[in-house]
Design a protein that fits this description.
alpha/beta; Alpha-Beta Plaits; DHBP synthase; Nucleotidyltransferase, domain 5; eleven-stranded mixed β-sheet; seven-stranded mixed β-sheet; about 30% helix; globular
Length: about 775
């Protein structure tokens, strides 16, 4: 009996070769009908045929999908009774419009070049041999070139490149790997690549380079030049990873004095020349996301010392045809490949703006516009599990599914550093790419533009805008501006509550006030966040029960003299903590180190005067304690980038626990002055690496003690950690060990960044679960 079925599939099903897969499957099962992209991001399939053929089709649809396809749910509607044949064959028809409905967030992320395209790239008999923009339905740019859904060529920046006859033939052939590949192109009809000097003048390739601008660029890199290369999500600054002079010039131009630079290695074997990795790290490096992996430096480390001042180095593998072509023409195994921008500003995607980078020697530019600029993602493996540090290329804008359903649209804006935005609607959160720190007009403008682009792309209008509790940061001001524009409400979420909320999303076993689920005790440790008491929090323990967040413990409050200046000059933290100590020699020590302050002894006079008068804000920040210890041990006397002193301290902590301190807890408060005093008194007796490790042990054991006490008291079996300190490869594994030794579960962030890059995701979720009018189970 002939039957008709209508199948609607939601998930990541557009731009990933799904319709050609459905077409081939339908033909193989003798079915007629059609498949099409829907304007809301889903795919609709209508099939006619014998029922047993349709059942075989649906089974294969569920179990044999292409590797990049992600199903969220499949809706199958069976027609009543038998049907008259309406279709002559099975076909792929035009897409439906998106204008009338909220769009399901199905835009795929940018995907690393696949093995088949890589083979064609270096096959001299293939018509795309050596073409820098070779792609297929299994790889290439997606998010960075899309304007709107449905994901069709007309809605991408590739619409500006009409297809040649050969490409058009492939595009229309359902059995071809490039069938409806929206980024399809070739030498004849696709984007072109050219080399210019820093004045914008075309550079004619030398005779030995066969007129190839890539070959000329590679030769210039080997000569010590800095090349700005336009990639799929923006410009990269590229130079030799072995050339001290070139890297020094690059750092000066970027105003990036000490923050580590990312490296791209030719191959996995090339990575092994300077770094060590385990199987998990290698698999992530090779994945289609191709993020930057933070790897331990190897004993044979041979890159320039200017690449990274830590014990780790950020490494990625080539992920575009252009990357592979550059390496193919180089004798170098590793390149510095860092975002083209001034430090902490948005990545540059515009050709004219890139030409304004005065320290760049040459630019390798293509003529395809980048719609959504996007940095490289960053991942670290901690406690044997991957943790995303920066969620961008390869991951964005894949949605994050949540266990509540929102009846309204929630827009969350993050805080001040490592900002992203997130949009929560229905049962999903779509987070933006990394947008950087809100320290410049350029960054703020980029934030505003991203809000507008995402709302337009997803066809949503915010009903609620969420921001940080801090009253005077740019994202708070923007929240109220958007609220006035859209006539919606503003919700302010405490910084560390938002961090904790990311763990609730990640772990489906914790309590959200629903039957059969347990609560969670969450440790949140970072540099700073505005607290309900107006002080700076950053070493907190929360009891989470349903939508109730209770601050049950924290680090001892310490003077943060000068506010943010104490984060830049750790001696201020040391002075604030020790000024009233009974330990001998403190004042002499402070003045002996006053040269590390901009105004020397006069500044120390002012610091101690403020300390005596008690005119300072207080902080429970874990980061500031680690900064102070870093200063005492001679590791860092000022901060060049966010988290630097604490990260340098972790880098040298390869010793023994020589202090063997037991946590001193008073009224649910971990005494950190005790730790600082013990280190101060032990500096001449023990090596810095041993004291650094001892400090990490005390902090980990102390935080675990605070969490375990509360978990046991309230009958909770899950303890988690979030915040930037969760990336620490000593503290987090030690807390995990202590927790599991007591028979409790331990969790940390994985798919959502633990630091401020994940804050907007937590803000959106927290706002949803704490407002009954917004959500339902």
């Amino acid at each position: 009996m002939h039957m008709r079925y209508t199948i609607t599939i939601h998930g990541r099903v557009q731009g990933v070769g799904f319709r050609p897969f459905v077409y081939r499957l339908a033909i193989a099962n003798n079915l007629k009908g059609y498949v099409r992209n829907m304007g809301d991001g889903s795919v609709e399939i209508v099939v006619e045929g014998y029922e047993h053929d349709i059942e075989g089709f649906i089974h294969a649809l569920r179990h044999d999908k292409p590797p990049l396809v992600v199903y969220e749910h499949i809706d199958v509607k069976k027609g009543e009774g038998s049907c008259e044949t309406e279709f002559a064959n099975f076909s792929i028809i035009g897409s439906a419009d998106a204008s009338s409905s909220t769009v399901e967030p199905s835009i795929p992320p940018d995907i690393a070049i696949c093995d088949e395209c890589l083979h064609e790239l270096f096959n001299i008999h293939d018509r795309r041999h050596g073409y820098f923009f070779i792609t297929c339905t299994n790889c290439g740019p997606r998010f960075t070139m899309v304007r709107a859904l449905p994901y069709d060529r007309a809605n991408t920046s590739m619409a500006e490149f009409p297809l040649c006859n050969e490409c058009l033939k492939e595009y229309r052939d359902p059995l071809n790997r490039r069938f409806h590949n929206e980024s399809i192109a070739c030498h004849e009809c696709g984007p072109r690549l050219y080399l210019v000097d820093n004045n914008g003048r075309r550079v004619v390739a030398a005779e030995g380079d066969d007129g190839n601008p890539i070959a000329t660029a590679a030769r210039l890199i080997e000569q010590g030049c800095i090349i700005a290369v336009k990639g799929i999500g923006g410009f990269h600054l590229i130079t030799s990873a072995y050339d001290d002079d070139a890297i020094s010039r690059l750092r000066k131009g970027k105003r990036r004095e000490s923050k580590p630079l990312a490296v791209m290695a030719r191959s996995i074997d090339a990575v092994r020349e300077f770094a060590v990795m385990d199987e998990v790290e290698e698999s992530i490096l090779r994945s289609y996301a191709r993020p930057i992996m933070l790897l331990r430096k190897g004993s044979n480390y041979n890159l320039s010392p200017l690449v990274s001042n830590l014990d780790t180095v950020g490494v990625m593998l080539p992920y575009t045809a252009l990357n592979h072509l550059i390496f193919n023409m180089l004798n170098l195994n590793a390149l510095v490949v860092t975002s083209a921008n001034v430090s902490d500003e948005p990545i540059i995607a515009d050709d004219d703006e890139a030409l304004m980078l005065g320290f760049v020697d040459y630019l390798l530019i293509h003529n395809r516009r980048i719609i959504n600029p996007c940095d490289d993602s960053v991942v670290i493996v901690n406690s044997c599990s991957p943790m995303i540090v920066r969620r961008a290329r390869g991951y964005v804008p894949s949605p994050i599914n949540i266990d509540v359903y929102s009846s309204r649209c929630i827009l969350a804006l993050g805080a001040h550093l490592n900002v992203t935005i997130s949009i929560l609607f229905k049962d999903k959160i779509v987070a933006s790419q990394h947008l950087g720190d809100m320290d410049s007009l350029k960054a703020y403008t980029n934030l505003c533009n991203t809000v507008e682009r995402f709302c337009r792309m997803l066809n949503v209008r915010p009903d609620v805008v969420v921001c940080d509790l801090h009253p005077s940061i740019p994202t708070t001001n923007l929240a109220y501006t958007i609220a006035r524009e859209y006539g919606c409400s503003v919700k302010r979420v405490q910084h560390h509550h938002a961090h904790a909320s990311t763990l609730l999303i990640e772990d489906k076993k914790v309590n959200m006030g629903r039957e059969g689920r347990r609560g969670m005790v969450c440790i949140v440790c970072d540099g700073n966040g505005y607290g309900y008491d107006g002080n700076v929090w950053g070493g907190e323990v929360f009891l989470i029960d349903g939508s109730r967040y209770e601050r049950v413990a924290h680090l001892m409050e310490q003077p943060m003299i000068g506010g943010d200046l104490a984060a830049y000059y750790p001696l201020r933290m040391v002075a604030g903590i020790l000024y009233s100590s009974s330990v001998d020699g403190v004042e002499d020590y402070l003045y002996s180190r006053a040269y590390t302050l901009p105004y020397g002894r006069a500044e120390m006079d002012a610091i101690l005067d403020v300390a005596r008068k008690g005119r300072y804000i207080k902080t429970t920040s874990t980061g500031r304690i680690l900064d102070a210890i870093s200063f005492l041990l001679g590791v860092a006397d000022r901060r060049g980038y966010e988290g630097e002193p604490a990260m340098l301290l972790e880098s040298v902590a390869y010793g023994d626990d020589v202090l063997k301190l037991e946590p001193r807890v008073i009224d649910s408060t971990l005494d950190t002055r005790y730790l600082i005093e013990e280190i101060f008194c032990s500096m001449k007796r023990f090596h810095a690496r041993d004291l650094a490790y001892s400090a990490h042990v005390y902090m980990a054991k102390g935080l675990a003690t605070l969490a375990l006490d509360n978990a046991m008291r309230h009958g909770i079996d899950t303890i988690g950690i979030s915040g930037g300190v969760a990336y620490n490869r000593i503290i987090t594994p030690l807390i995990k060990r202590y927790v599991e030794e007591h028979g409790l579960r331990f969790i940390h962030n994985s798919i959502i960044p633990a630091g401020d890059a994940g804050l907007s995701i937590g803000q959106a979720y927290h706002a949803c679960i704490n407002d009954a009018s917004l959500s339902s189970n």
